[in-house]
Design brief:
554 residues
Length: 554
């Protein structure tokens, strides 16, 4: 039903309006941001068997502390044989699991710290395939959730229901970890209808069809209601103790992780250190270390898509802002040319888009530039409509529109309330209570990033000692020769190097610190910030995002 004071359709905008299509952004109308087909369980080319053989017994190798030894022996494989998008995704998943097992899995000694160096056998192909997929080389939501699932019974009535899904890989081999990932997978699949409804609402706005917009908002709210129901099931098979003390560390990245043993980040050997001979000091090498956030729920495009569609604005953590007003809505809705909505002001949410596949990130950007659902609702509803306290069973289409819009926001707020409860139960509470067994201490991390000048000269000299690449990677030790015919790049000169033993000794380690270098640790001080695997103050961030969602209601 057209409304007189909304002039959306009074002037044809077809030359400017180009409807978004999910398939253009590699988004499935059935599975949403998940692949339409099940992810590959194995790379078909025998060339990649060195990777797949490790993954065949991944949990056993990780449990027995063999990952670092095997990675050092593994040849450096090229990525040119990854012909399809599905194969590249599979490669990214495999390399992500191996990389985080290498960094966080230690090597048998309980007191051994996290590794600050990734061997070329992992880092070189990982960076290459990440560039192909246009996301950062680190464990992210895509690696452990979006591309890491399988359907158990393809003939089931609801193939993508939570009870009919399984994971391809986990770090711990536990049901708890599988369930943690699969809850996200099931939510993604269930909300695919909500993504289609967003585009339907945009089409309705273009035609000034209020009933169509209201119906689309109802479908968005329904999909979010089902997402809430799935999220509530997290407690069924994922134990908070197991998650915090056994799983969570492997999902961490290397940004803001000094407390966990990575004060500088991680050096991707063979990628960022091929010219170490030209570095004149230790500080120059430290700048080559990469810092990435770990796996985070903020990395799924789903919630950001709903935020953008509903016009929820997020501001820098710790700062308050206001949601869009009628004046701002009118200015944007009646613009003669397309207006690009700036990205959310919360820098963390914007930063998390770099951990999404490129096409999904582009979808969010294009959606922000074209979606005007909130503006439409603001201008459709007069002050008298906003003043009504009771809006049940109203025949006024404007009242129904407002009700449908607020229902979406209520479902979003409820979802974020549940997320806060999960973080409290799975991270905050275990951190305060401590483990049931005493964990061994590990060496304290450095509080002195720049070593003394005399130590710097000695370390640079050490870095320049190794001029011959070692087979199977450049960490030396138990590396074995690779097949020079099948894997010639393994023995290709990658530039000066140094063994892992020498490098680990060359990293400055202070002896006066008392920090236990673990992500999972007991926190005795109530004022201590407990960071999520993404590196943020988890509770403060989540509460602000939840409050901003509630403030958007009309």
């Amino acid at each position: 039903m057209p409304v007189e004071h909304i002039q959306v359709a009074s002037e044809p905008q077809s030359p400017l309006y180009s409807p978004l299509r999910l398939r253009d952004y590699d988004i499935s109308p059935v599975h949403g941001f998940l692949p339409t087909e099940q992810p590959l369980r194995r790379l078909p080319d025998p060339y990649y068997e060195p990777w797949e053989r490790i993954m065949d017994r991944f949990n056993s190798y990780l449990l027995g502390h063999h990952i670092r030894r095997l990675a050092r022996k593994m040849p450096v494989l090229g990525t040119d044989r990854l012909k399809t998008r599905e194969e590249r995704r599979r490669a990214f998943v495999v390399l992500s699991f191996m990389a985080h097992a290498f960094v966080w899995g230690r090597n048998g000694a309980a007191s051994e710290p996290a590794s600050e160096f990734l061997p070329p056998s992992i880092s070189i192909p990982w960076v290459a395939v990440s560039d192909m997929l246009q996301l950062n080389p680190v464990v992210c939501c895509a690696a452990v959730c979006h591309w890491n699932w399988q359907i158990l019974d393809e003939n089931a009535k609801e193939p993508m229901s939570l009870d009919n899904l399984g994971t391809l890989h986990t770090f711990s081999g536990s049901m708890d970890e599988s369930w943690f990932y699969l809850v996200t997978v099931a939510i993604e699949a269930k909300c695919a209808s909500g993504l289609s409804a967003i585009l339907d609402a945009m089409d309705g706005i273009e035609c000034n069809d209020m009933d169509s917009v209201t119906g689309a908002l109802g479908r968005i709210a329904a999909s979010l209601h089902e997402a809430n129901a799935i999220l509530e099931r997290m407690y069924e098979h994922c134990d908070p103790y197991v998650f915090y003390w056994k799983i969570r560390e492997f999902l961490a990245g290397w940004e803001n992780m000094a407390e966990a043993g990575l004060p500088y980040g991680v050096l991707y050997e063979g990628v960022d250190d091929t010219d170490t001979f030209s570095l004149d000091n230790w500080q120059s090498l430290l700048r080559r270390f990469r810092k990435y956030a770990g796996g985070s729920a903020a990395q799924t495009p789903l919630l950001q898509a709903f935020d953008i569609a509903l016009g929820i604005k997020h501001y820098p953590t710790g700062k308050r802002g206001k949601q869009s007003s009628v004046v701002e809505a009118r200015a944007r809705l009646h613009a003669q040319q397309g207006i690009s909505e700036p990205p959310p002001a919360n820098s963390y949410l914007v930063h998390m888009r770099n951990y999404m596949p490129g096409r999904h990130r582009q979808f969010l950007e294009d959606l922000a530039a074209t979606c005007m659902i909130r503006e439409y609702v603001l201008l459709a509803c007069s002050d008298s409509v906003f003043a009504q306290q009771s809006i049940e069973d109203s025949d006024d289409p404007r009242v129904r529109l407002r009700q449908a819009y607020n229902s979406c926001l209520s479902m979003m707020k409820a979802f974020r309330d549940k997320h806060i409860m999960i973080v409290t139960r799975y991270i905050i509470a275990p951190a305060r209570s401590g483990p049931s067994v005493v964990l061994p201490s590990v060496p304290p991390v450095s509080s002195q990033i720049v070593p003394p000048e005399e130590q710097t000269r000695a370390r640079i000299a050490q870095l320049n000692l190794g001029s011959r690449p070692l087979p199977g990677g450049r960490l030396g030790g138990d590396s074995l020769p690779a097949d020079p015919t099948m894997y010639p790049q393994t023995n290709k000169a990658l530039g000066p190097s140094v063994s892992g033993e020498t490098r680990s000794k060359s990293v400055p380690m202070a002896t006066n610190g008392a920090t236990k270098a673990r992500l999972a640790r007991t926190v005795d001080d109530d004022n201590t910030v407990i960071r999520g695997t993404g590196g943020t103050d988890a509770i403060q961030f989540l509460k602000q995002v939840r409050n901003e969602t509630a403030q958007t209601m009309l």
